[in-house]
Amino acid sequence: MSLKAKEIIIAALSIAIVAVLAFVVFTEKAHVLKERKIVVKPDSAGCVRCHGYKDEKGLPGRDPGIVKHWEASMHAEQGVGCFDCHGVPPAGGGEDILNPRYVVQTSWDKESGLKAVQLVVKNGKPVERPDIWKHEGAQIVADVSPRTCARCHEKEAEQFFNSRHSSAAQFIGSIDNFLGRFAEGPAAANTGCQQCHGGVTRLVSMDFKEGATPLYAPDTWPNTGVGRVNLDGSWGSCSACHSRHEFSSEVARRPENCGKCHMGPDHPQFEIYNESKHGIAFRKNERLMNLDLPGGEWVLGRDYSQAPTCSTCHMGPVAQHGNYSGLSLTHDVGARISWTLRPVISFQPKAIIAPDGTVILKDPKDRRAEMKQVCLNCHSDNWVNNFYVQFDQAVELYNEKYAKPASAIYKYLQEEGMVDAVPMNEEIEYVFFELWHHEGRRARHGASMMGPDFVQWHGFYELSRNLYTHFLPLAKELAEKAGKGEKMEKFIQEMLRGPEGKDWEKYHRWTEGLTTEEMQGMLEWERKMYEIRK
Q1: Which of 8, 358, 396, 412 is deepest in the core (most CB within 10 A)?
Q2: Is 336 contained in some domain?
Q3: Domain tally for the chain?
Q4: Distance separating alpha carbons of residues 486 and 331, to the nearest angstrom
Q5: Does residue 29 register a pLDDT over 70?
Q6: Distance in angstroms between the alpha carbons of the first and the last residue of the chain
Q7: What pLDDT does 1 receive?
Q8: 0.85 surpassed by pTM
């Protein structure tokens, strides 16, 4: 047999083997899909038939896409149907405060960090939520709140309630909210701010007839903001991350799911993740990461190790490794965060302890230890510890060089009447706002997630340029117009110099100019650092 004939036979056999393997994979997938069982309970059968299935004339139901989404969910396999979520439990079905039929009052003590829920009572009876309506003989609601989810997912709902996510709509009254609703305009806030933060859901009219459909106010609905204030008085929306009606764990684990809100000029975590080595590794290894495993069964170090997602670091369970006992799944996204990088000046939030001694949020040291345990699944002790040294230095640089002096100068302008009482109507207000809210956050978040371009060009470069060439000159100009130029100049120098002039030496002295000898000394230092030879 000739060599050419042998090559042809080998090539034909190779093609045949590939074809057989492809057929096996296809038939196995088809077999799994065919065997997948969907359980439709009697109380939800009418919903499925009317909204999804074709009738005897071959016409589709009212919302076939919704039913198809539900059929693809774990809920459908477990027999959790439409009525389990949208139905209203009867009166007297357990504790009233846990019954999503009734209205509660949610409160948040920002000093202690504690949240509380109280049942709303009128004339000695619990108040029913206003959007209950009778539909096809059943009492239902469209606005499903975390209190309904808590009937099956009690632990997850409690963790979420204690998290900053659930209180995201409480930014009302902040400068961010003022910008969106008043400076920009109501439609900007409705379709922008509250689609991430959440808004206060309300009805067009609180008095609708029996059997009529309640009309949700169009400026508050649709809304799946993570801190949405629901019509039963609860805070939060589980569907913000677990998109309805499939409520997929895989969707919640994917980085782009978090990127719905965590992106853009003020908190670009998704873009930073994509730039980072973690994001690069995820895109390369996505197919190997078992993202479709059921909830609670996606464990770092056991089911995947190829790359982390946002969920991995901030929420996901971690297998036991080395001397570490592992971590459980949490729905409190702040449970492993030691610094808060959101405000004007970063700080490390203290622990939150309930009156009975229950630890709701651990102290910063313990939170960092838990995050380190995630990192140590793939990295060495030295690598992880040195990363945190670099991260802390970046946050402290932002705080000491930029945030503290700039915020003190801005406050001084306000106290001296050089900035009026109307929010966001003067140039310096926008300059200061962007220093901390945009540029400062980008630098800090970039350092926390290893996105060097966001630390440098989108972060500290912008901070430096705008502090020295925009914010400080503008502050001096306002003071000159008010006849307080000399006083302002002295105050700025005091703020930049810091205690005993140490901050000036460390951060700002170069602005006075450098001698030839000083410039030569800097070049020599760089040559030694990078081993550059003359």
Answers
A1: 412
A2: no
A3: 4
A4: 53
A5: no
A6: 68
A7: 58
A8: yes
* Same domain, residue pair 122 and 236: yes
C-alpha pair distances (Å), 108 with each of 116, 228, 277, 414: 6, 15, 38, 29
Q: What is the pLDDT of residue 137?
A: 87
Residue 321's domain spans which residues? 249-331+369-379
Residue type for position 201:
T
| Pair 215, 104 in one domain | yes
Contact 161, 146 (CB under 8 A): yes
What residues have CB less than 8 Å from 267, skipping those under 6 apart?
A: 342, 441, 445
The answer on 416 and 282 residing in a single domain is: no
Round the average pLDDT of the chain to a whole number and report it: 91
Considering the domain boundaries, does residue 397 fall inside one? yes
Average pLDDT of span 102-129? 95
Read off the pLDDT of residues 205-259 as tens digits, 9 standing for 90 and up: 877 777 788 899 999 999 999 999 999 999 999 999 999 999 999 999 999 999 9
- CA nearest 318: which of 332, 341, 342, 301? 301
**How remote is the C-alpha of 373 from its chain's centroid?**
21
* Rounded Cα–Cα distance for residues 257 and 238 (Å): 13
Residues 100 and 211 both lie in one domain: yes
Q: Is 120 found in the same domain as 14?
A: no
Q: Are residues 233 and 253 in the same domain?
A: no
- Is 102 in the same domain as 228? yes
Distance CA 80, CA 70 (A): 9
The two structure tokens encoding residue 9: 């036979």
| Residue 525 included in any domain | no
The predicted pLDDT at position 171 comes to 85
Any domain includes 49: yes
The mean-pLDDT minimum among 18-22, 152-156, 470-474 falls in 18-22
Beta bridge partners of 133: 140
Q: Can you tell me the mean pLDDT for 103-131?
A: 95
